[in-house]
Each structure stands twice: as structure tokens, then as C-alpha cells.
Amino acid sequence: MNTLIDKIAWIHLDDNKILSTRSRGKSAYYLPGGKREPGESDLDTLIREIDEELSVTIIPTTATHLGTFHAQAHGHADGVTVRMTCYTAEHHGVPTPSNEIEEITWLTHADRDRVSPVDQLIFDHLHRTGQLH
Prior knowledge:
Number of domains: 1
Helix content: 10-25%
Number of helices: 2
Mean pLDDT: 96
CATH class: Alpha Beta
CATH topology: Nucleoside Triphosphate Pyrophosphohydrolase
Structural class: alpha+beta
CATH superfamily: Nucleoside Triphosphate Pyrophosphohydrolase
Order of helices and strands: EEEEHEEEEEH
Distance between the termini: 38 Å
Low-confidence stretches: none
Strand content: 35-45%
CATH architecture: Alpha-Beta Complex
Largest sheet: 4 strands, mixed
Number of strands: 9
């Protein structure tokens, strides 16, 4: 049985590095964001998840779709895939770990082996387009 996990991610780049998060008890890093709740739009999910995880406020009018990526879901059985719809957006506040997030860090393309399979695809895309060193 194939199962799809529908996630929204915030792509926050600075100085050709990308903001990534690590949850308590996990070793891999993930782009900030999360699963859509019933009835939520992409933008609703992005705003809620980033506020919950990083205590920053996404500025809705600046959200821009960067791309949608599919891969085997990290830590799930074969056949479970994740669809990661990615947005860039400006924000208010300083990213600070909150809720399940234990650590935030800035990663480069050289760190791609430290992130989930779908994040690796995103890192590769950003590297190819000159946005991630």
C-alpha cells in the first residue's frame, strides 16, 4: 500500500546556507515545516508550523512557491512517500527552537548526508541553482 505524507516546508536561505532543524531524539536534520491539518491551505500550514517550531511569524504576502519534491519518507516503511511543498517567505522575529525542535543550524550542500531523502533533493536543487553552497 502506498501512503503519501503531505508536508509544507520553509526554505530560509542566508549567505548561501539553509536553516534546518533537529527534533528531540532524532539524528537527522529536517527543513522547518510540517504536515497539513484538515482544511488548511499551504500558507496556513506554513504560518502555523513555523510559528510552532521556530517562534517566528511568516509574512504571508511574501510567501513564494519554490518547488514541490517527492521522495521515500525518512524513517518510514518502503512505499511511504513524502510530498514536500516548499516556500520562501520573509519573517518577523529570530528563529528559536520551540516545541519538539531541539536544535536549529545553518547547513550547506556539503551537509546533505545529514538530512532526510526529500531534503537531499531540495539541497541538490538549491545547489544546482546557485542558492546553496
